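Technical annex, item 7. During the second reporting period the consortium partners agreed on a shared format for inverse folding records so that results from different sites could be compared directly. Each record opens with the tokenized structure and is followed by the designed sequence. A conforming record, contributed by the partner at site C, is shown below for reference.
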């Protein structure tokens, strides 16, 4: 590799051959390949060293570089360096477009030629302590470090004011000021009467900062849009949509394309209308894009999974396709869904409604009695759903030994028979089966929170999951057989750093984890089995989850660690995931099922698309969690002052994080609310000990807390620790406010 932009020398090639002569001058293609692989700009000395050129060859190299720059195959970089033509300079202006799962900003270069494809992603490093977080729409001059592919790491060199695209401020307008909805932004913004834009107290507003002529005092802002009112139905999801930059308005052209859609005919399709396929979804499901059927097949099982034929309606390069790519996926909130496709498709022609003909792609699978797949085949069909069922209906019918209404006799038993076979195969693989309960927000007709409860996890849920996993495996295998591009769903093994942190945490509970060099998903499952039914089970499940790598999309297969699978792709939800749509198109092209298969230019963009849809998925997950947190804060706001049983779920230098056992509500116990002491954090960040009081607060420790405040606007909650349960050497005691006159902030108040 070439010399990195940040310094350091590249590996040196042997400059002389066996005869002692200089190496030949590189070809134009060799030099272009070298520039593409280099992590940044390179100079003539770097090139000469890499190719083993002598000083006599410098003039010829200089002429070669000049011709490459004139033809646009190399770009000047710095005073005398060169770089690949699509490589970003070391210092450039970027605009923040969203955040990742950790809340760190993701940016795109402001200057980018669209002819070079989608712009690269710049992952901005967190700001210095005390600096406000970068907001979507904000522009900065950033120092970049090339990470490979189309990814860069960015460090803020200077924040820029922009007249046409200023930084956004999302907040609630109250008495001449804007209170940000992002809990990380502590500063308020002042709004002059002439800059209020018609906003009233309690309005959710979008604003832009104004120049601040005085170095001290409140920062001025101008309201540019009123989005809604805080506290009204749908206001929480509205805040989350805008806070995370989620597109929620379809272009007129895309809507028109969707509304022109029509039903499919039997031409070129296999007729499945006589097959009693059924959809099984949650009671609150908004779309139905998968249907299933099972029956005995000798000693084994025949299983059919049919998926809505979204590829028939969303053609490559269309307005629908461009918008679906930009969104990447649907986003689900307790009160609404922001779909990937317009309603005419997502709730219409691509929703497998009962007793209505629909186009589908299907996979027919045969399994032996042990759940091992014998064979499979894909096809394009016309289906007619026999029934729209819920998980609860299917579970109740199975337990009663009957069938839900509209389902042929014995079908429920067949579905569960096939499920048990697949479950046996899953157990043999040794997959990771985490038990981290989802929180379900129940709203009344006016959009107010009625309750926050754990989402039930029934065998009927697992049944559909296993059927979908089986279909996804078949899709990846089929595309490899056809030698078609595949958008894999990949999940890497945990990093050594995460494994070591998890190992130390488990060791504190007396649990051993397998060595890192031979870690397998079943090792984590064994850990979870040890704590099953114990008070610390939820905390351990969450710790194991945090210790995993994040799943992603990639055209390069590394397997799926969590599922213990070597080949895996998403095939089963093209109505809400763009990755599945690409897999459908690749199957259509490879099996010659129509003229709307994967286009060559699409396949060429797979690396960029994979990066993009991975980020949109994480953006959606963050926004969905954010909404639940805000709804939960609204629910808990009516219980300020109440006492709760909780567990310590985080230990930091600025306080403790606790999670309420009752409903999973999480919040902070500020260090200032603990007894005045010299608090010391252990090396692993798992415990905090007071040198004077002897109190110890450890990760996973049960505690009693009192809710001090809950802020629905931000989703933040603050608790006061009422009772500690110190470990060895400590003593039980109550934690209240520090004595008057004592400073109560910082680590030994630093």
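Designed sequence (site C submission):
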């Amino acid at each position: 590799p070439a010399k990195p932009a940040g310094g350091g020398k590249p590996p040196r090639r042997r400059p002389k051959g066996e005869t002692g002569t200089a190496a030949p001058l590189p070809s134009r293609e060799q030099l272009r390949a070298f520039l593409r692989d280099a992590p940044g700009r390179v100079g003539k000395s770097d090139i000469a060293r890499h190719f083993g050129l002598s000083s006599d060859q410098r003039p010829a190299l200089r002429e070669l570089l000049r011709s490459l720059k004139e033809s646009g195959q190399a770009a000047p970089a710095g005073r005398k360096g060169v770089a690949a033509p699509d490589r970003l300079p070391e210092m450039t202006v970027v605009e923040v477009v969203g955040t990742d799962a950790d809340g760190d900003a993701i940016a795109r270069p402001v200057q980018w030629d669209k002819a070079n494809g989608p712009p690269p992603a710049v992952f901005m490093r967190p700001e210095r302590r005390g600096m406000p977080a970068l907001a979507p729409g904000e522009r900065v001059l950033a120092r970049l470090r090339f990470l490979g592919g189309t990814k860069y790491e960015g460090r803020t060199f200077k924040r820029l004011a922009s007249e046409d695209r200023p930084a956004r401020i999302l907040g609630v307008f109250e008495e001449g000021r804007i209170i940000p909805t992002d809990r990380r932004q502590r500063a308020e913004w002042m709004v002059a009467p002439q800059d209020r834009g018609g906003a009233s107290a309690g309005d959710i507003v979008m604003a832009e900062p104004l120049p601040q002529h005085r170095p001290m005092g409140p920062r001025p802002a101008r309201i540019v849009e009123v989005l809604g009112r805080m506290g009204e139905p749908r206001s929480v999801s509205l805040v989350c949509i805008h806070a995370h930059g989620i597109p929620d308005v379809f272009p007129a052209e895309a809507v028109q394309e969707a509304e022109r859609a029509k039903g499919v005919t039997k031409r070129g399709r296999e007729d499945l209308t006589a097959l009693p396929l059924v959809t099984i979804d949650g009671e609150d499901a908004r779309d139905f894009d998968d249907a299933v059927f099972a029956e005995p097949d000798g000693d084994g099982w025949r299983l059919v999974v049919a998926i809505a034929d979204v590829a028939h309606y969303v053609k490559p390069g269309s307005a629908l396709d461009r918008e679906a790519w930009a969104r990447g996926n649907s986003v689900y909130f307790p009160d609404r869904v922001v779909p990937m496709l317009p309603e005419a498709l997502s709730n219409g022609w691509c929703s497998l409604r009962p007793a209505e003909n629909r186009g589908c792609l299907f996979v027919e699978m045969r399994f032996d009695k042990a759940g091992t797949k014998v064979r499979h085949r894909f096809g394009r069909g016309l289906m007619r759903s026999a029934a729209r069922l819920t998980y609860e209906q299917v579970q109740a019918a199975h337990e009663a030994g009957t069938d839900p209404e509209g389902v042929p006799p014995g079908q429920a038993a067949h579905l569960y028979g096939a499920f048990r076979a697949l479950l046996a195969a899953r157990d043999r693989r040794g997959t990771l089966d985490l038990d981290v309960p989802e929180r379900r927000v129940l709203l009344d007709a006016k959009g107010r929170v009625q309750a926050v409860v754990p989402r039930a996890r029934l065998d009927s849920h697992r049944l559909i999951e296993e059927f979908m996993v089986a279909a996804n495996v078949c899709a990846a295998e089929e595309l490899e057989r056809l030698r078609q591009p595949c958008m894999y769903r990949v999940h890497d093994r945990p990093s050594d750093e995460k494994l070591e942190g998890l190992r130390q945490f488990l060791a504190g509970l007396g649990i051993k984890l397998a060595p890192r060099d031979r870690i397998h998903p079943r090792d984590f499952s064994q850990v979870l089995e040890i704590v099953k039914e114990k008070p610390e089970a939820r905390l351990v499940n969450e710790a194991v989850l945090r210790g995993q790598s994040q799943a992603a999309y990639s055209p390069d297969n590394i397997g799926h660690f969590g599922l213990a699978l070597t080949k895996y792709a998403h095939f089963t939800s093209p109505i809400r995931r763009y990755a599945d749509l690409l897999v459908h198109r690749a199957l259509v092209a490879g099996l010659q099922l129509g003229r709307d298969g994967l286009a060559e230019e699409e396949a060429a963009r797979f690396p960029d698309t994979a990066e993009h849809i991975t980020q949109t998925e994480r953006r959606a997950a963050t926004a969905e969690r954010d909404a639940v947190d805000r709804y939960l804060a609204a629910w808990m706001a009516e219980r300020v002052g109440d006492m709760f049983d909780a567990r310590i779920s985080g230990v930091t230098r600025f306080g403790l994080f606790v999670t309420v056992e009752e409903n999973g509500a999480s919040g902070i116990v500020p260090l200032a609310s603990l007894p005045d002491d010299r608090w010391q954090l252990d090396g692993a960040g798992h415990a905090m000990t007071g040198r004077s009081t002897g109190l110890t607060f450890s990760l996973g420790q049960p505690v009693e807390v009192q809710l001090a405040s809950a802020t629905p606007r931000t989703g933040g909650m603050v608790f006061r620790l009422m009772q500690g349960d110190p470990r060895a050497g400590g003593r039980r005691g109550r934690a209240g406010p520090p004595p008057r006159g004592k400073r109560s902030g910082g680590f030994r108040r630093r």
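Confidence is low (pLDDT under 50) at residues 1-20, 162-166, 724-750. Residues 606-636 form the longest helix (31 residues). All partners now use this format for quarterly exchanges.
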